[in-house]
Amino acid sequence: MELAAIPYEPSTGIEMTPTGVVFSGSGRPSLELVEKAIEHVGRLTRTSQFCLGDLINFAEHEFGSKYDEWMQLTGMTYQTLADISYVARNLPISLRNENLDYTQHRMIVSKVKTNVGRREWIETATALRLSSRELDASLKRGRVVTTIELQKEKENKGNIHDSRGSEPHSITLIKLTRWSEDMEAKHGAVDTWEFAIQAQLRQEFQALQQFCERLYA
Question: Which residues have CB under 8 Å from 115's CB, separation 6+?
């Protein structure tokens, strides 16, 4: 099937075709017109998958499933169209946010099962401007995870990897040190923690304390 050209305000000298932009006409388009075209394409790119999903869902509801035809029209596989349809069907327009891209919406739909939860995550991701990487990690852990935290974890893993040639006790001490640093970074100095938490940790570390006492005896 041969696709027709997609005009964009032909009088501006900017014409969009299936394979790119053709600058036609006698004069050069102004920077303002080019930037308007950039905005136009950007918006289409960000919304095209949702628009496609909404159209497929409407057509399927009104006229029945015709995926063979839609695959031919779009050049996409059945699975791709089905996935796009699923996301659009399970995320009403009222929940979508133009400041998040389609991939981020898809992550939320796949990992959060209720619309209440999806709304909360969309609002959180929007307010905190979470990247796709941050959002994916946050959804997996059920809490907000920042790039700084992810980078620190990567560095810690690198330190542990570098120490693989060391004795097992060295690796254990590195992990314990990192754990204590992370805990105090998140919750403050250990002597300010709740009494119940301190008591639990003293009990759990009792064997290590006894070992240290013998080591320094």
Answer: 91, 92, 95
